[in-house]
Amino acid sequence: MTKSDLIQAISSRLAHLPARDVEIVINTMFESMTAALTAGDRIEIRGFGSFSVRHRRARMGRNPKTGDAIAVPPKRVPFFPVGHELRKRINEDFQPTKAAP
User: Fold this and answer.
1) For 1, which DSSP code?
2) Could you give the maximum distance between any two Cα atoms of the chain, in Å?
3) Can you give the pLDDT at residue 68?
């Protein structure tokens, strides 16, 4: 699902809100979440999951094409552990396929 798909889905369920207003709300929400993560805050949405920032240390990596060693600088990456309720709903109707022997 893309952001425009999300906007369409919400505006179709809430017919009294124009799509432009829904888009403003969605953009504001994402901007607020981005600002919070940039500031190092944690975002928790009960039943859905939580967003946080993890720190990756500097390391030596390899260029896959040439095999040369390259220095990878330290960085911060977003991290999202899924909430219990969402995990449960996703796996509710899941039927695993049998692996071939």
Assistant:
1) -
2) 59
3) 96
Q: How many contiguous H segments (helices) and E segments (strands) does the chain have?
A: 3, 5
Q: Token match 């993890």: residue?
A: 54
Residues paired with 54 in a beta bridge = 77
The model's pTM is 0.76
What is the enclosing helix (H) or strand (E) of 90?
helix 84-91
DSSP state of 78: E
pLDDT tens-digit readout, 5-50: 999 999 999 999 999 999 999 999 999 999 999 999 999 999 999 9
Confidence class for position 99, pLDDT limits 50, 70, 90? low
Residue 22: how many CB atoms within 10 A of its CB?
19
76 touches 54 (CB < 8 A): yes
